[in-house]
Design goal:
Keywords: DNA-binding, Repressor, Transcription, Transcription regulation. The chain is mainly alpha-helical. Helix content is about 70%, strand content about 0%. Helix 1 packs across helix 4 and helix 4 packs parallel to helix 7. The longest helix is centred in the first third of the chain and has 28 residues.
Length: about 200
């Protein structure tokens, strides 16, 4: 047993995240989680009150990471002076790297968050809204500067985020496309659309 290890709580979250990914929240037990970490159930309950709290902490941890990484990506690009496509590609790459790094969290989010009580769901959804708001503000500032044409910023923001979230269902790491390739394609589509460029009709 290793009940005195300082990072036991982090190990519990990691083991639970993987177990929820494999079996689903409802079918995973605290006994299985503690066995994977190599601690007793009593030691697990020393760190977390119940399985619900573990699920909430997993969701909150991943949501916080995405918000923080996106905030930094937007901040470093706003005053960078880089071409707009490079800015948007860099921001999208940061989003995708964080999103795909937490691939098992994405499955948990889509399938298991329903088991959280409403007050905890609101916290996680609040983090998602925070992410939407900071991306929307960035896109709106580009419109205000005349860098992109004026469209409904909410529609644009959700269209962009939706295209990123669907990667969970089709993107395979190690396939023909890297995350950088995907981000560049999405940025190009949003900035230039599908019509042929001049001289290529």
């Amino acid at each position: 047993m290793k009940e005195d290890k300082k990072d036991t709580a982090a190990e519990i979250l990691q083991a639970a995240r993987q177990l929820f990914y494999e079996k689903g929240y409802e079918n995973a037990s605290t006994r299985e989680i503690s066995a994977r970490v190599g601690i007793s159930k009593a030691a697990l309950y020393h760190h977390f009150r119940n399985k619900e709290e573990i699920l909430f902490r997993i969701c909150l941890q991943a949501a916080d990471e995405l918000v923080d990484n996106m905030r930094r990506a937007i901040a470093r690009n706003v005053e960078s002076g880089k071409p707009l496509k490079e800015q948007l590609t860099d921001i999208l790459i940061e989003y995708l790297r964080t999103y795909m790094k937490n691939e098992n969290f994405n499955k948990i989010l889509f399938h298991d968050m329903e088991y959280l009580p409403e007050d905890k769901k609101r916290v996680i959804l609040g983090k998602e809204k925070e992410n939407v708001h900071q991306l929307r503000a960035y896109l709106a500032s580009l419109m205000g500067d005349g860098a992109i044409r004026s469209v409904n910023p909410t529609v644009l923001t959700f269209s962009l985020i939706s295209s990123l979230h669907w990667l969970y269902f089709w993107y395979k790491p190690g396939g023909p496309l890297t995350l950088e390739d995907v981000a560049e394609h999405i940025a190009d589509l949003f900035l230039h659309g599908l019509l042929p460029r001049e001289g290529k009709r």
